[in-house]
């Protein structure tokens, strides 16, 4: 390594570290809000904490039944990821290899599905789900949550493959006599891994943070509450209970961070794969 | 310039040899099996409801009551409401943040590519906002940005006291502040997406450029950005759509659209009409207008990008 | 490829058509007339009622109280099983919208009267002919809760009353006697005196506009005599009546006297911040509608007492405070057991249920047959204010669109960015739109 790269490394790391400040400060603020005594928080919500208590976290965990809510959320997120991941992969690969005159417009149309406001499509979907007796069902909510990310997901996979998967490679495999599914399995999926990791990470996080779908489809059944929905039970008409909310947020932060760390690893493998070629 | 020469062919292949590609890559009818899930799921869950809402936008829609057909009345009422136009104006003001939302994560993703220790850790930290629910984010920022809050206190301590403001309740400041908050919220996602896209660029391109003596900015502008143009455009469209569709929770918890209507967005307005007031017909009409507006914006944006891209490519070839 | 393309498209079209058909027949279009409900005997067959409410979480021991009530209800109606779901308040009203669109969900819901109920009118049975004659005479606030179409969609239960929490220590440290709050001018003077001593008179948050709304209710209820209130609930009194402008002027007068402090209040929200401001002892007064807030205020600031807002000079009363039903209960139109649902609603209004709520959860009753003996110092001062015979409220008749405009323009009005006339004009425009 040359001198220049060394200096560059230190410089870049410093910048990257500086950028973390606006992300860490609110986070620290959140933690401090969750672990302060009520009187301390009430007298100066924006000030430095002068006390420490785990009461809010314990209370939030018990009152809002966050343990069960965590399991529910994970079920919903996994279903959403399965739905969005598999269909995005298949659809993205299809649009990479299929080049009929109608595929371009169809791709745009399906991508435009992302532009439909959730308030507009969710209500009719809810009506049908209610008629079919599908409300309060985590699986149904997961599918719908997955589909809400699908237009973005398949388009992203397509965009990625457009760049990483060359026509020559596809041609070579098809000339080998491999069928479209073999090509998809052995070329398409491995090549799309970094994109898939990104799509899965985003789908997971979006489903995890969703309140609108959960409150619409799951609210009639308290046993199916997700974390975001359970956290709303801490707020009543008379009391917003911000400290309880902060505590619930802390509890729900951990699993997402773990998932994200795993996704990072998958991304890294993607980086490795990219450099070999 | 080797870089542009290297990336350009991929595009040309597509444009110049469609017939061969068509014959070779289509995969035939069986390939449609890969597409069917996307079509079925989107049609059932996204498009059919939209058609239904569009149909209902021509009614005085009263679920459970008598819904009378009223033609374009809902639209006329919408367009004659000054509040509607103010909200549309806000919507376009927010779009001014677009260059920031695109370039900042792009630059950082590029920087994190190499020669940064623990880049994975940094990416994780930038991603923190994505895992915080809007209600919690609002709690944090309303406290941080309040008149007597830490941000203003900090400004006063460093002698910039006259910059201190009621950030979220000052009509002039609220929109720029929300633009920065949107940057904060989406930054990590942008870095993630761009990192993923950058990982597909062959390393030898950068190595060759470096041998030619190309610096950081040269690599960024002439290799990285053109190579992942598709991802950049996708992210732009994604941000435009987000600004039209996913501002609701932010606006709702941070400002409730205020002061006055100065920070309200269309999705917030639709939510109010539908959920709070029960004006189903006008909410349906507003949803349709919103979809059309997004499509128009995305279309115009794509056109501009294409024209700009062509311009740049043209210049390079001549140089 | 052409064939598959058209096949695909027709497939999508078929799906779309199916969706349309489904939602079309369920989601309205069919003329559901406003059938009336009457108080009738509950059939002997077993039935289940789904009840949605956000109320139990509002009170300490709220859940226990509701369990007791359901047990008492079942003694009278053993054939009716009650499935009560406590819903989070934050998403409650959206959930009712969804239920209304899908014509499915609960049989009985907690609901506010007047304009709120009106906006859900396609989902709710009118109840004016369905009230148990045995309790009707004892119930307060029936009239306040009629909607502008002349229907009563809720059976009101419980009572709130807006009054002032007063931190007597802060008054003492400013050398102001809290008794000056007995008159309007006295209160204005107290604001000036407290402000001059650097004490914030009122805990204030304008950002969500709810304080503005609250003050509007508190003042306009004083200005409306019984006849005017009836006109207001029936939609005959319009928002362009001078009394609303006078109420705004009174609020601006308070603002000028320094009642709300400086611009800090513009960035605060009432529920998130202003409550805490009072609890922390940073403000001398606060507007509140419920006992629970008063109890918390008292435990944090032991010199707290409760006093009425003084009558504005335009008041038609001696000692009225803005008080009305805490909430109410409604029967949904899609219920399979309207008689059982109505029986439950009437049971909630009855003396037995309201007595349990008072005894177990400290909910002030609106049924005159209930013995509500105060048990705590706060109850001793607050309850008599709430049960005052003069009280009424025009609160529930403010159309939701008007409230939205008042809320969002509160900050600009107080900061002087929006003129009083423009503020009123925008509210009137919203009022006309809602009519």
UniProtKB/TrEMBL annotation, chain A:
Q: Which domain of life is it from?
A: Bacteria
Q: Is Transmembrane found in the keyword set? A: yes
**UniProt keyword annotations, A-Z:** Cell membrane, Membrane, Transmembrane, Transmembrane helix, Transport
CDD domains noted in UniProt: TM_PBP2 (cd06261)
Extract the Gene3D superfamilies matched here.
MetI-like
The organism that produces this protein has a lineage beginning with: Bacteria, Bacillati, Actinomycetota, Actinomycetes, Micrococcales
Membrane topology note:
Multi-pass membrane protein
Q: Which Pfam families match?
A: BPD_transp_1
Residue limits of the ABC transmembrane type-1 domain? Answer: 70-263
Full protein name = Carbohydrate ABC transporter permease
Where, by residue number, does the polypeptide cross the bilayer?
12-35, 73-96, 108-132, 138-157, 183-208, 242-263
Automatic annotation (TrEMBL), chain B:
UniProt keyword list: Cell membrane, Membrane, Transmembrane, Transmembrane helix, Transport
Gene3D superfamilies xref list: MetI-like (1.10.3720.10)
Give start-end of the signal peptide.
none
Q: Which CDD domains match?
A: TM_PBP2
**Protein topology in the membrane:** Multi-pass membrane protein
Does the record carry Lyase as a key word? no
- Give the residue spans that cross the bilayer: 32-55, 92-112, 124-145, 177-201, 232-253, 283-308
Q: Which InterPro entries match?
A: ABC_transporter_permease, MetI-like, MetI-like_sf
Q: Which domain of life is it from?
A: Bacteria
Q: Where is the ABC transmembrane type-1 domain positioned along the sequence?
A: 87-301
First-listed, main subcellular location of the protein, grouped into a coarse class: membrane
- Renumbered to this chain, region (Disordered) spans 1-21
The places in or outside the cell where this protein is found are: Cell membrane
Query: Which protein family is named in the record?
Result: Belongs to the binding-protein-dependent transport system permease family.
Q: What is this protein called?
A: Carbohydrate ABC transporter permease
TrEMBL record, chain C:
- Which keywords are on file for this protein? Signal
Tell me if Signal is a UniProt keyword of this record. Answer: yes
The signal peptide here is 1-31
Recorded hits in SUPFAM superfamilies, A to Z, give:
Periplasmic binding protein-like II (SSF53850)
Q: Give the PROSITE patterns listed for this entry.
A: PROKAR_LIPOPROTEIN
Which InterPro entries does the entry link to?
Bact_solute-bd_prot1 (IPR050490), SBP (IPR006059)
Q: Does the keyword Signal apply?
A: yes
- The name under which this protein is listed is ABC transporter substrate-binding protein
**Which species does this protein come from?**
Leucobacter albus
């Amino acid at each position: 390594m040359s001198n220049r790269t060394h200096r560059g490394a230190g410089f870049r790391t410093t910048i990257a570290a500086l950028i973390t400040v606006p992300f860490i400060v609110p986070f620290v603020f959140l933690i401090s809000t969750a672990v302060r005594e009520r009187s301390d928080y009430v007298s100066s919500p924006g000030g430095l904490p002068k006390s420490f208590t785990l009461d809010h976290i314990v209370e939030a965990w018990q009152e809002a039944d966050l343990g069960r809510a965590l399991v529910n959320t994970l079920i919903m997120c996994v279903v959403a990821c399965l739905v969005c991941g598999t269909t995005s992969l298949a659809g993205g690969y299809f649009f990479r290899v299929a080049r009929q005159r109608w595929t371009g417009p169809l791709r745009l149309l399906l991508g435009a599905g992302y532009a439909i406001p959730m308030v507009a499509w969710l209500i009719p979907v809810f009506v049908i789900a209610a008629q079919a007796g599908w409300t309060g069902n985590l699986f149904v909510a997961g599918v719908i949550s997955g589909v809400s990310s699908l237009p973005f997901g398949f388009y992203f996979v397509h965009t990625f493959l457009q760049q990483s998967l060359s026509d020559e490679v596809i041609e070579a495999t098809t000339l080998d006599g491999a069928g479209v599914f073999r090509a998809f399995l052995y070329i398409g999926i491995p090549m799309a891994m970094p994109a898939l990791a990104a799509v899965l990470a985003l789908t997971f996080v979006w489903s995890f943070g969703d309140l609108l779908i959960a409150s619409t489809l799951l609210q009639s059944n308290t046993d199916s509450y997700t974390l975001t929905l359970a956290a709303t039970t801490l707020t009543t008409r008379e009391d917003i209970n911000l400290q309880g909310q902060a505590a619930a947020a802390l509890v729900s932060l951990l699993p997402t961070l773990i998932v994200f760390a795993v996704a990072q690893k998958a991304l890294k493998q993607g980086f490795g794969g990219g450099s070999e070629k | 310039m080797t870089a542009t020469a290297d990336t350009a062919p991929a595009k040309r292949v597509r444009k110049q040899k469609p017939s061969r590609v068509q014959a070779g890559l289509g995969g035939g009818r069986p390939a449609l099996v890969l597409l069917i899930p996307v079509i079925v799921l989107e049609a059932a869950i996204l498009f059919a409801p939209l058609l239904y809402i569009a149909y209902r936008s021509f009614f005085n829609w009263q679920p459970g009551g008598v819904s009378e057909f009223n033609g374009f009345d809902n639209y006329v009422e919408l367009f004659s409401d000054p509040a509607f136009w103010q909200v549309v104006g806000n919507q376009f003001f927010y779009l001014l943040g677009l260059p920031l939302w695109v370039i900042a994560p792009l630059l950082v993703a590029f920087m994190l590519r190499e020669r940064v220790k623990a880049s994975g850790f940094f990416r994780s930290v930038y991603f923190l906002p994505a895992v915080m629910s809007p209600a919690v984010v609002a709690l944090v920022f309303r406290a941080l940005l309040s008149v007597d809050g830490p941000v203003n206190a900090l400004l006063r301590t460093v002698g910039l006291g006259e910059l201190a403001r009621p950030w979220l309740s000052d009509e002039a400041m609220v929109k720029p502040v929300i633009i920065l908050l949107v940057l904060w919220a989406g930054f990590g996602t942008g870095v993630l997406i761009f990192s993923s896209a950058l990982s597909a660029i062959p390393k030898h391109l950068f190595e060759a450029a470096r041998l030619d003596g190309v610096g950081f900015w040269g690599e960024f502008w002439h290799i990285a950005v053109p190579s992942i143009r598709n991802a950049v455009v996708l992210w732009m469209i994604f941000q435009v759509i987000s600004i039209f569709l996913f501002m609701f929770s932010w606006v709702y918890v941070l400002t409730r659209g205020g002061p006055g209507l100065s920070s309200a967005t269309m999705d917030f307005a639709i939510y109010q009409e539908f959920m709070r007031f029960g004006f189903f017909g006008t909410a349906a009409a507003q949803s349709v207008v919103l979809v059309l507006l997004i499509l128009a914006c995305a279309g115009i944006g794509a056109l501009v990008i294409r024209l700009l891209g062509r311009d740049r490519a043209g210049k390079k070839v001549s140089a | 490829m052409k064939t598959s393309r058209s096949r695909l498209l027709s497939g999508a079209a078929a799906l779309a058509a199916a969706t349309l058909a489904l939602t079309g027949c369920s989601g309205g279009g069919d003329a559901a007339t406003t059938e009336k409900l009457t108080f009738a005997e509950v059939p002997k067959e077993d039935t289940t009622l789904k009840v949605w409410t956000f109320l139990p979480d509002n009170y300490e021991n709220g859940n226990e109280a509701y369990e007791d009530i359901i047990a008492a209800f079942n003694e009278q109606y053993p054939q009716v099983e009650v499935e009560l779901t406590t819903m989070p308040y934050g998403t409650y009203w959206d959930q009712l919208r969804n239920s209304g669109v899908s014509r499915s969900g609960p049989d009985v819901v907690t609901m506010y009267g007047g304009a709120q109920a009106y906006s859900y009118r396609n989902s709710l049975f009118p109840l004016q002919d369905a009230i148990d004659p045995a309790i009707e005479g004892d119930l307060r606030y029936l009239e306040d809760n009629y909607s502008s179409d002349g229907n009563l969609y809720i059976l009101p239960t419980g009572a709130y009353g807006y009054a002032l929490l007063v931190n007597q220590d802060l008054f003492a440290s400013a050398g102001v006697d809290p008794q000056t709050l007995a008159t309007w001018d006295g209160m204005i003077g107290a604001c000036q005196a407290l402000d001059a001593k650097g004490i914030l008179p009122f805990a204030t948050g304008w950002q969500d506009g709810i304080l503005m709304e609250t003050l509007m209710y508190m003042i306009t209820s004083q200005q409306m005599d019984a006849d005017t209130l009836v006109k207001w609930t029936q939609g005959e009194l319009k928002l362009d009546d001078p009394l609303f402008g006078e109420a705004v002027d009174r609020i601006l007068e308070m603002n000028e006297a320094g009642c709300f402090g400086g611009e800090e209040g513009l960035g605060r929200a009432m529920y998130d911040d202003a409550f805490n401001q009072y609890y922390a002892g940073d403000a001398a007064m606060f507007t509140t509608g419920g006992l629970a807030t008063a109890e918390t205020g008292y435990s944090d600031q032991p010199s707290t007492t409760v006093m009425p807002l003084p009558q504005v000079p335009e008041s038609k009363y001696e000692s009225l405070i803005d008080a009305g039903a805490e909430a109410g209960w409604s029967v949904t139109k899609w219920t399979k057991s309207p008689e059982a649902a109505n029986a439950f609603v009437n049971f909630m209004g009855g003396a037995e249920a309201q007595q349990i709520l008072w005894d177990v959860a400290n909910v002030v009753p609106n049924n005159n047959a209930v013995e509500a003996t105060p048990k705590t110092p706060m109850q001793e001062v607050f309850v008599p204010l709430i049960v005052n015979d003069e009280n009424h409220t025009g609160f529930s008749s403010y159309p939701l669109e008007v409230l939205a405009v008042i809320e969002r323009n509160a900050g600009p009005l107080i900061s002087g960015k929006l003129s009083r006339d423009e503020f009123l004009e925008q509210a009137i425009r919203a009022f006309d739109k809602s009519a």
